[in-house]
Amino acid sequence: MLFSRPKSTMITPGEALPGRDQPAFAIPERHEVLGTPMQPPFPTGIETAVFALGCFWGAERLFWRMPGVYTTAVGYGGGFTPNPTYEEVCSGQTGHAEAVLVAFDPGKASYESLLKTFFEEHDPTQGMRQGNDIGTQYRSAIYYTTEEQRRVAEMARGKYNDAVQKASLKPLTTEIEPAGPFYYAEGYHQQYLHKVPNGYCGLQGTGVSCDIPAQAGTGDGLKELPASDDEWRLRLGPEEFAVLRQAGTEGAFTGEYVDIEDDGLYRCRACGNPLFNSGTKFHSGSGWPSFTEAISPAAVELIEDTSYGMRRTEVRCARCNSHLGHLFNDGPREAGGERWCINSLSLDLDRR
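Request: output the structure for the sequence above.
Response:
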């Protein structure tokens, strides 16, 4: 992996990118796979995390394949040399590790899920190496961007350390440090295994599962996604399955949330994805729970629906693709004019 290339560029995760107009950096505007911008500012609600787990070619691919990940980029972090070149990082004199910046929607991908991938997909017991890749730049590290990430990462590391030692492996060597400047690697490194599908990837896990306890997290309420209709049927009741997975509609004025005014957060009953705040709920008289807006544009997916000879906009959960209801333009004008008409059977209410 030794190539010559121009100097990299730096961001502090979550902040605007300085020097992005300098062509020598040659950082692509958009992600080769996801099609999203690779450089901040990112959309409101998108969080960032930084992980080092060996050669960043394979490491980046692990994360861009995860649901809920907005964008990824490879670069250098955890060191002291500003604007390092790849050759400088490989010299071991910069203190930097090959790292992956992950920008993710916490409503679709929890930080715990990123940690699970991180721990299970490399061997964090090897110190300054990863397989045949030897050097400080290949060390295992988590660079947190919030105090909550630090807390969860430390708890997860402790749990996984216990698990690998029970499996007669060495203790973890993963470092957990605050995320300093992240220096983007040269353009040709970005999404390398998409451009070169049979390219080198030296990552290999320990084979030990990383089970992060529920109490370690932020209480995000997300559920694991079933892999088949049979698994969905086991989770959902017959009426719920008919609405959520078969785009059915409950009877008007029959749902449990039609008239209530309780304060709380409405989630997708199928997967726990946050969808609507109670403050946007209003009495539409339609017979179904109605809202003036979704909690985030990224929480839902809008699809043209021409069934039954009508032309409507169907609303689906962006995380699990379950049917929620329909969007109409006859809502309160003072709130934007939208009416999100949602089945009670598609919702769960977390009361405050």
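Residues 160 and 210 are 6 Å apart (CA to CA).
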